[in-house]
Design a protein that fits this description.
Layout lengths: L10 H6 L4 H5 L3 H12 L5 E8 L7 H10 L2 H4 L6 E6 L7 E6 L4 E5 L5 H16 L8
Parallel strand pairs: 1-2
Antiparallel strand pairs: 1-3, 3-4
Helix pairs in contact: 3-6, 4-6
Length: about 140
Amino acid sequence: MSSATPKIYTLKTLLESPLPVWTRLARDPLKRELKNQLKLINLKPTKRVHLKFDPFHPHVSSIREFLVAVSSPNIIKTNPKCIIKTEIVCQRQEPTITVSLENGKTIIFKTDLLSTLEITKNYNQLVNKLTATPTAATV
């Protein structure tokens, strides 16, 4: 049996050679999924989004990333009348998102252990389910 010698790459050859296509497509599937979910966010049925968090809480990054995403111009264009309010508290409270819908219903997300992807997926599922217009029965 002959042992194959490992191929050694220098930094110069790695920087000069282009990346193969499969590495560019499969870089981070979670980021790709998050990007797709953020494209689906629709504020049209939403009257108000209230984000309350303590900046010193250990699990605050997901709500802050969601705040940045929701306040982007593309998402605000879906409903310019929607109020996005941020409340910063210093009481070590759990970060929460309260979504008030046009039909009077309220959704509360406790985002302590949720990732940004989970928050956006749950938002899209719940808002689409609650605001879905009942289809007329065909005769």
